[in-house]
């Protein structure tokens, strides 16, 4: 089977599974981010030609290279670890639509400043990344640190006119992602949204929950995900970054 056909089938299967699940259970249909890290621009093009526009990337340089080659109406989601010195992404890529991994006020300020320098600034959507499983190696603000989460949310709302506070994002732990029961990481994310909404006076429905990847998006949708990020189920497995740089 050609790569094109393979991608089209995998993409249609994912879209169909999500829409069937939502229709049968009356869940709201979440936004689907096709996570294209390590995959070539031609792969993205195939889904683009089917009408898909939301793509997720983890690495700054890779995103920059793809963004210049691909159509400007793509909505890029940056979902990788964002270093402070890479905030210029918000200006360099006007169609960067979301940064899903915001975790500090200083990065928010930098993104806001960069975005404001565009000649026609369109707000950059940001999700605060929460480390719901509180694993040491994972990025994001610890779920138990509600004060820090709330002060970052406040900072975005009150001091960052070029950012739009879109919601909360998490990567569930491996154990929770492969269990059968309710996912406790997703539960924590949803609980934090309730608290923020109450304490800051923002309607719950105006805040999204970015949760669910290939292994756990069905459960995430059951628990109210508004934004699932699916990579390998659509694009197939990934080789490591090292393999890529050797072969290019
Ligand atoms: C890679 C990645 C995904 C997609 O993972 P799959 O398991 O391949 O679906 C989603 N979210 C983040 C933050 C990622 O880094």
What does this structure look like?
40% of the residues are buried. The chain starts with a helix and ends with a helix. Mean pLDDT is 95; it is low at 242-248. It is globular, with a radius of gyration of 18 Å. It has 248 residues and is an alpha/beta fold. α6 crosses α8. The protein has eleven helices and nine strands. Strands 1, 2, 3, 4, 5, 6, 7, 8 and 9 form a nine-stranded parallel beta sheet that branches. Residues 35, 37, 58, 79, 171, 213-215, 229-233 line the site of pyridoxal-5'-phosphate.
Compose a concise summary of this entry.
With 248 residues, the chain is of the alpha/beta class. The protein is built from 11 helices and 9 strands.
């Amino acid at each position: 089977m050609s790569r094109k056909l393979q991608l089209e089938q995998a993409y249609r299967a994912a879209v169909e599974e999500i829409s069937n699940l939502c229709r049968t259970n009356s869940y709201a249909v979440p936004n689907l981010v096709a996570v294209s890290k390590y995959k070539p621009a031609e792969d993205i093009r195939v889904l683009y030609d089917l009408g898909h526009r939301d793509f997720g990337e983890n690495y700054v340089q890779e995103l920059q290279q793809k963004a210049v080659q691909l159509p400007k109406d793509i909505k890029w989601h940056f979902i990788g670890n964002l270093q402070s010195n890479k905030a210029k992404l918000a200006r360099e890529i006007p169609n960067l639509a979301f940064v899903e991994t915001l975790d500090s006020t200083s990065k928010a300020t930098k993104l806001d400043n960069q975005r404001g320098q565009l000649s026609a600034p369109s707000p950059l959507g940001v999700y605060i990344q929460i480390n719901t499983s509180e694993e040491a190696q994972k990025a994001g603000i610890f779920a138990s640190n509600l004060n820090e989460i709330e002060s970052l949310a406040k900072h975005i709302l009150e001091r960052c006119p070029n950012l739009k506070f879109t919601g909360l994002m998490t990567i569930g732990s491996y154990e929770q992602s492969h269990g059968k029961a309710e996912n406790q990481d997703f539960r924590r994310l949803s609980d934090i949204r309730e608290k923020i909404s109450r304490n800051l006076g923002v309607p719950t429905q105006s805040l999204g929950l970015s949760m669910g990847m290939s292994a756990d998006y069905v459960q995430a949708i059951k628990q109210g995900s508004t934004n699932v990020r699916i990579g390998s189920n659509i694009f197939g497995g990934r080789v490591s970054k090292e393999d890529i740089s050797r072969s290019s």
